[in-house]
Structures are given as structure tokens and as C-alpha cells.
Design a protein that fits this description.
Order of helices and strands: HHHHHH
Helix content: over 70%
Distance between the termini: 76 Å
Strand content: under 5%
Length: 167
């Protein structure tokens, strides 16, 4: 009789934990997804303004917009920094510069959208072997992060510029 009581108690604890974990995950996903959607909208707005300023050659406005845009990017991400370099590029062909900028921003937004879709799925659907696309890799020295990158799929970000174009 005591064994059944202990087993029932343990089962109740497990059910409570799983229910709590699912509720927390749902709230977290909803909040993060909403904030990411706001972030993508803001990036689109700023990118459009920057595109207009590049084409118009309005350097003071471009400088102000670049600083605003920088606050929405990851300062440690090489691709994000390449986008900022495109804003400053000194070229005579402003239309090409603006198009390259727009392309890089669209790749950034697509990558974030793919990540948001993936992160809203259940954990088992994020396993690497379930995806046919190539997964992102990591340069991290941390063993746990390397292991997670080996097990779980991470959408690969398309590189918008060749290194030779960026110099």
C-alpha cells in the first residue's frame, strides 16, 4: 500500500513539473516571438529609410540612421557588421550599394524568421537528423554549446557578401 502511495506521489510530481514546464515554454515562446516580430518590423523600417538615404546621398541622415540601425544588430556577428559596412561604403554607384544593403538585410530577416519558426516547434522536431538543409556551425570553445550544435538543427545564415566585396 505504501509503495502505491509513493508511486502516485512521484507520478503527481512528474505531471506537475511537465505541466509547469510546458506552460513556461509556451509563455516564453509567445513573448519572444512577439518581440522578434517587432524587431523585424523595426529593422524593415530602418532599412527602408537607410536605402532612401543611400540613394539620395544624404550623409548626415545616413549617419543618424546607421547609429539607430546598429542598436538593432548583434555587435559580435560578422554578417551584421558587414551590413553596417555597406552603409558606409564609398561608391559612386549608390543604387548598387543600396541594393546590396537591401539584399543583406533581407538575408538577416529571413534567417531570423527561420529561427523563430524553428524555436516555436517542439524540441524533438529540432533534432538535426530531421532536417535536410545544412545546419549552422559554431566557433565556441564551450563543450556544451558544441554538443548542442551537433544534436539540434540551427538554420544556416546566408552570407550576403563575398569577403573580397566587403574589403
Amino acid at each position: 500500500m505504501e509503495f502505491k502511495l509513493i508511486l502516485t506521489f512521484i507520478s503527481g510530481l512528474i505531471v506537475a513539473y511537465v505541466t509547469f514546464w510546458n506552460a513556461e515554454r509556451k509563455i516564453s515562446i509567445e513573448n519572444i516571438t512577439k518581440e522578434r516580430a517587432k524587431w523585424r518590423d523595426k529593422v524593415r523600417e530602418l532599412a527602408l529609410e537607410i536605402h532612401k538615404a543611400i540613394v539620395a546621398g544624404d550623409k548626415p541622415k545616413l549617419s543618424e540612421l546607421k547609429n539607430q540601425f546598429r542598436l538593432h544588430l548583434n555587435p559580435t556577428d560578422k554578417e551584421d557588421m558587414n551590413i553596417l559596412k555597406l552603409v558606409d561604403a564609398n561608391t559612386d554607384d549608390k543604387e548598387t550599394q543600396a541594393d546590396q544593403f537591401a539584399t543583406c538585410v533581407s538575408f538577416l530577416l529571413k534567417h531570423d524568421w527561420e529561427r523563430a519558426k524553428l524555436e516555436s516547434k517542439p524540441l524533438f522536431k529540432r533534432l538535426k537528423f530531421l532536417h535536410s538543409k545544412e545546419s549552422e556551425t559554431t566557433d565556441s570553445d564551450k563543450i556544451v554549446i558544441k554538443l548542442l550544435y551537433k544534436i539540434f538543427y540551427h538554420p544556416k545564415r546566408i552570407r550576403c557578401l563575398d569577403e573580397s566585396e566587403n574589403s
